[in-house]
Design goal:
218 residues, alpha+beta, eight-stranded antiparallel sheet, globular, disordered N terminus
Length: 218
């Protein structure tokens, strides 16, 4: 199953939203009860993390909203702040419904993430665009059959450099992981020289230094 071209076209952010006046005019022409929203293949949940040191990690993680149609995705996306406007220590996490954005979740614990680290200048030039493209890759099932292994994506806003990652369910599924990484790099239109690496959550959670070794890279 893959989402139709019509749905993918609808995922394009270029079409401006109708004004209330335009909407009311269109409702006169067509019965609003006949309008059917375009379904996504999966239901998704958007989470927000704010680093409040007085609270536990789980208390800082808050579910914003869930959606399963193209229209509800854009309604949510256009309603929230862009990552570049968030404070340091904040995250957005978009995960398939039923998967929590944490290593310990059953769907995540054997997995890992494709990780892209941005420099400080890229916060203003690239961060929001890369994050939107990442969201479209997920909700549009852009990795073909490999999309089944995708759990979610995270953007971390940090003083030293922001990060965007795509989480997958099994770090041993090399062929699937490489497919996701290559297609993701193409979608972001990264240069051939720009390398992104894949790290297992196990290695990330048990690292002793400041960096985690890459299992795979593209």
């Amino acid at each position: 199953f893959s989402i139709s071209d019509h749905v993918l076209t609808s995922l394009s952010p270029q079409k401006p939203a109708e004004t209330e006046e335009q909407q009311s005019e269109s409702q006169v022409v067509a019965n609003p009860e006949q309008y059917i929203k375009l379904p996504l293949q999966n239901k998704w949940a958007l989470w927000y993390f704010k680093n409040d040191k007085s609270k536990s990690w789980t208390e800082n993680l808050r579910l914003i909203s869930k959606f399963d149609t193209v229209e509800d995705f854009w309604a949510l996306y256009n309603h929230i702040q862009q990552p570049s406007k968030l404070g340091f220590g904040c995250d957005y996490c978009l995960f398939k419904d039923g998967i929590k954005p944490m290593w310990e979740d059953d769907r995540n614990k054997l997995g890992g993430r494709w990780l892209m680290t941005l420099n400080k200048q890229q916060r203003h030039n690239d961060l929001d665009r890369y994050w939107m493209e990442t969201l479209l890759c997920l909700v549009g099932e852009s990795f073909d059959e490999a999309s089944e292994d995708v759990c979610g994506a995270v953007v971390n806003v940090r003083p030293k450099g922001d990060k965007i990652s795509i989480w997958t369910s099994n770090c041993q599924n090399r062929e699937v992981i490489m497919t996701i990484g290559q297609l993701y790099k193409e979608r972001l239109n990264l240069s051939i020289k720009a390398m992104i690496g894949y790290q297992s959550h196990d290695d990330t959670s048990s690292k002793s230094g400041s960096t985690t070794k890459n299992m795979y890279s593209v």
